[in-house]
Amino acid sequence: MASRSAATRWLEQLTRIPTASGLEHQVVDWVRAWARRRPDLKFGLDSGGNVLITQKGRKSRPPVFAVAHMDHPAFVVTSVEGSRVGFEFRGGVNEEYFINAAVEFAGSGAEGVVVTYDASSQSGVFEVTGEGVSVGDIGMWKFPSKTPSADRLLAPACDDLAGCAAALAALDRARGMQELRHFGVLLTRAEEVGLVGATHVAREGTVPRDSRFLSIETSRALPNAPIGEGPIIRIGDAATVFDPELSNRISHAAAKAGIPHQRKLMDGGGCEATAFGVYGYQATGLCLALGNWHNRGNLDEFEAGTGDPVPMQEEISLSDFHGLVDLLLIAAAAVDEPTDFKQRFDALYERTGHILG
After folding, report:
1. Mean pLDDT lowest for which of 10-14, 28-32, 134-138, 353-357?
2. Quick check: 21 and 189 in contact, CB under 8 A?
3. CA distances from 284 to 65, 137, 202, 214, 271 (A)
4. What does 110-152 look like in DSSP terms, one character per residue?
5. Does 74-141 carry CATH code 2.40.30.20?
């Protein structure tokens, strides 16, 4: 069963793996090796390459899946002509962050600078020093050095590899709980370019129709949803409001258990719970408040016109992360728990309904 130190180690390892939409293979390899060390788990890939991990044996309840995506906004090399290297950028980042930006390439040790970038096609050209860069390689921002403050993790790709780490840590703990044998993990691909992996799961029927989804994100910190105030029960995103029944059950259970948490809309971006809901699945969201979302340092100041766009490592709270693991286990049990909202309103009406005359 995962200790906090083990979960932190997995978090640190996963958030530093180079990944991009459509090029999540290094994350898949790490997760496959993790699952193989646990013979009571079943590891599989669906027809779109999404990872599905379930517990072996009979289940008494419909499945519940913690969902996180394995990609992160990144450069993908499309051509190499000497020191001039073409790229496309897969993910959402303001074009101002690309101006003369420094990048490094996983595996080769080469480095480069963005010399042109076209926001309409999300493509451009690097000037590269060093050798070994090939078509299909992943390029990442080269970040300024910074020491994290207490209770903070700085990493290239918290979104959403921190979510992957939390899902796996929760599953590792659930393995010892008979009442959570229906709990599994779904890790998706290509979220950053349009929730593609989640949509594939929903359209192709990768999981049973009665599955329930706990969609995990690391979502942009907001003034009313700050880093360090606990994991977040996310009731919606920029597009939709998630399943209210699941959200209310989880909120009720978290409050009853006394787990520090926040309950917020988190409408700064999209979430895979929206894709699952569109196709008729029950889905709600959980998330961590995230600093430097999509590696955009000074984002609030930049948008306000008071700061420069500087690529930075993403930032989360370690206590929020461990709280999210706890919350996932509470949520997995709570999805089948009835709430007492109707009884409470009935009782209130019986006491005060006479006021209507």
Report:
1. 353-357
2. yes
3. 11, 34, 15, 5, 9
4. -EEEEEEEETTTTEEEEEEESS---TT-EEEEPPPP----TTE
5. yes
Cα–Cα distance between 21 and 90 in angstroms, integer? 6
Cα–Cα distance, 282 to 336 (Å, whole number): 12
pLDDT band at 134 (very low <50, low <70, confident <90, very high): very high
Smallest CA-to-CA distance from 129 within 156, 162, 157, 104 is with: 104
Percent of the chain with pLDDT over 90: 90
Q: Provide the mean pLDDT of the chain.
A: 95
- CA 284, distance to chain mean position in Å, is 13
- Check residue 33 and give its pLDDT: 98
Chain centroid to CA 75: 19
Q: Where are the domains of the chain?
A: 4-72+147-341, 74-141
Say how far apart CA 212 and CA 322 lie, in whole Å: 22
Identify the band that residue 341 occupies on the pLDDT scale cut at 50, 70 and 90: confident
Q: Are 52 and 207 in contact (CB under 8 A)?
A: yes
Q: How close are the terminal C-alpha atoms of the chain, in Å? A: 59
Distances (CA, A) of 228 to 44, 232, 318: 35, 10, 8
Rg (CA), the chain: 21
CATH 3.40.30.10 fits 4-72+147-341, yes or no: no
Count of other CB atoms within 10 angstroms of residue 310: 18
For residue 215, give the DSSP letter.
E
Q: How far is CA 198 from the centre of its chain?
A: 12
In contact, 65 and 211? CB cutoff 8 Å:
yes
Residue type, 290: L
Residues 6+ apart with CB under 8 A from 44: 51, 52, 53, 54
Instruction: Give the per-residue pLDDT at 357.
Output: 83
User: Looking at the whole model, is its pTM more than 0.85?
Assistant: yes
